[in-house]
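Lay summary. Proteins are chains of building blocks that fold into shapes, and those shapes determine what they do. In this project we predict the shape from the chain. Here is one chain we studied, written as its sequence of building blocks.
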Amino acid sequence: MAKGDRRRFMASMLAAVDAWPELAGCPLCAKGSVKFVYYGHAVTRIGYLWSWCDACLRGVSISRAAAPEHVPLVPFGSESGAGAPRYAEIKR
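And here is the predicted shape, written in a compact code that computers can read:
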């Protein structure tokens, strides 16, 4: 992975969150869409954000993320789990 990939992916991830339910394209492979899931506390909406490309399976994870009111949140302890696939973490 090239330097700056994380920054470019994060920009697309934020665009995907802002535009939800519309999709944002992956800036790394240009073939897939950036997907995300918030997994957190049902009342405070603070938890984890996992985001990945559904084609190249690269992505980022963020802790202490605040889920906006307009996006779904999987609550801690949910039977369904968070639903994020295994993906390669973009480090830089």
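What the prediction tells us: The chain has one domain: 5-89.
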